[in-house]
Amino acid sequence: MDRDAFWALIEECRRRFRGGDERLAWLCGELARRPLEEIVRFQVCLDRVAQDASTEDLWAAAARIFGGRCSDDGFCYFGLWMVGLGREAFERALADPDALADAPEVQRLAGRPRDEWNDDWPEWELLDYVAMEAYERAAGGAEDGAESCEDAFDDAVEARRLNDEGGRDPADGRGEVGGGAGAALGLPRLSRLFPLPARA
């Protein structure tokens, strides 16, 4: 599975379903019907794409949407949520984080109290586990228990990364950006959609 095939799966999932749980169930089923190596490659592609989104400017955009700050974990899950926006929106946001203001999913959040975002909350942590679940299902479980199946998946993902990257793990850079201090700078449209609360 290359990036084009990865994005084709994400786009098909997006076309079929709106809700995150439905998308995950469909993705898991689709991946579980494929060879184990292809499931591993899906995870490697996801890790690379998520790493692409790990930039200071996108952290600033996330912080603006979240009201002025974004935690390390929140930013990681925000990047996974951006994958769910589809390839075009994702790549536009990489080039110009303020372009997130054009995404319908972002526009739905604007003007609403954050405690009412519920299923629209811009994080998708569980996307990071769908390939592992599909791998376990495709492998028929593990004779020695789920833990050894997870270990086999992790080992296969690591081996594929090292093979593809000549020893460099593209996930190594996760968490190296610092977060969101300049959230208003260079983000005029997001700043209008998500004004920061006035200080007392």
Give an overview in words.
The structure is a single chain. This protein is mainly α and 200 residues long. The protein has one domain (3-193). It is 57% helix and 0% strand. The chain has 10 helices and no strands. The longest helix has 20 residues, at 146-165. Mean pLDDT is 87; it is low at 167-184.
Q: Please, how many helices?
A: 10
> Overall mean pLDDT score?
87
Number of strands: 0
Which structural class matches the secondary elements?
mainly alpha
* Helix-strand sequence: HHHHHHHHHH
Based on CA atoms alone, the radius of gyration comes out at 18 Å
How many separate structural domains?
1
In terms of DSSP E residues, the strand content is under 5%
Helix coverage percent: 55-70%
Categorize the overall geometry. elongated
**Euclidean distance between termini CA atoms:** 53 Å
> What are the segments in which pLDDT stays under 50 over at least 5 consecutive residues?
167-184
Biggest pleated sheet = none
Give a short overview:
The protein is mainly α.
Features:
200 residues; 0% strand; DUF4240 domain-containing protein
